[in-house]
Amino acid sequence: MRPSVPASADLPSAESDLLAFEELLGEKERSRLEEVREWLAREVLPIAVGCWDRAEFPHELIPRLAELDVVSPVRRQGHSHLLAGLIHAEFTRADASIGTFLGVHDGLFTGSIELLASDEQKAAWLPGAYSLEAIGAFGLTEPLGGSDVAGGLRTTARREGGSWVLDGAKRWIGNATFSDWVLVFARDEADGGVKGFLVDSTLPGFRTAKIENKIALRAVQNADITLEGVRVPDEFRLAHANSFKDVNRVLRSTRIGVAWQAVGQQLAAFDVARCYVLAREQFGRPLASFQLVQDQLVTMLGNAVSSMGMMVRLAQLEDAGQDRDEQSALAKAFTAARMRETVAIGRGLLGGNGIVTDYRMAKIFADAEAIYTYEGTHEVNTLIAGRAITGVSAIV
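The structure assignment produced for this chain is given below.
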């Protein structure tokens, strides 16, 4: 039971867009954003906490998500990067697990095909990805390799006639327990280059095992993947994935997507905290009437608004084709750090109720830890930005 919090606590707060960033969108895109918000309020918010508690993914949501038609809003639908970012933030605002599912399938999987496949491969693979009839995953991280995979993947690819034989292991691969396809990146034994392969998840030698006991993004089905002599036809090798530099083209975009997730997570914490302190009474008065509480709410909103301001400018640079690696790295590092502070303040404002998922804040607080870590740790992203501003690399 949630006796102190009204149902409106599950809805986005209009007060969060204090600097009116959404007015930068045209009328058509504002209408689209509102359509997505309404869908999330109807389809995702009512089930999100239950799925998180049970560590279950809501597979029944996929056909309805397909009808919403949100995959590839920029390249396929011609929308602005600003709308795409705001939509991604809204998905995370409703539920970070569903936001991450979409980020993996759309940003990493579909985005890799859009950027690195040949025209013939795009024609064959993208229709299913766009319609969500074929769910994808992205296999880069390894059990012994996270931030350092650029320096040497342990998973190998060996050419044998008209096929490639893959051996190795991947870890933390979202969607992998139920995906139809997994993009696997491996080191070519012949030339040492990083190659990408579209792997059918039913192939012999391909096995997945769900990662259990997570404290964050519990509805996301992360998996360990084992590849033992997995034979992939040459036509399923991504035509334009031949080095880690090629992979990084995808990661730059998805790192920006995770920074938008950090914005969405802050907005979620603000929504819940604001409604809670307005409804909850202590010492005969609403918590919202106390000066220290208002100060904390304003700090939360200030963090969210400053993060959004950075992302709005980065979206403009993306639209102009002027975004750079160090900009996405700085954005991810900054917004994730502000997110960590924001959700911690929000958890504190709910007192003891902040550690149970009944009030959503405990889930928001825990999910932030995953967002803080993936798509480059805070430290690695600061080093990427630091290298750009000093000309000196501190990365070994």
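Interim note for the steering committee: Residues 213 and 361 are 20 Å apart (CA to CA). Residues 1-8 have pLDDT under 50 and may be disordered.
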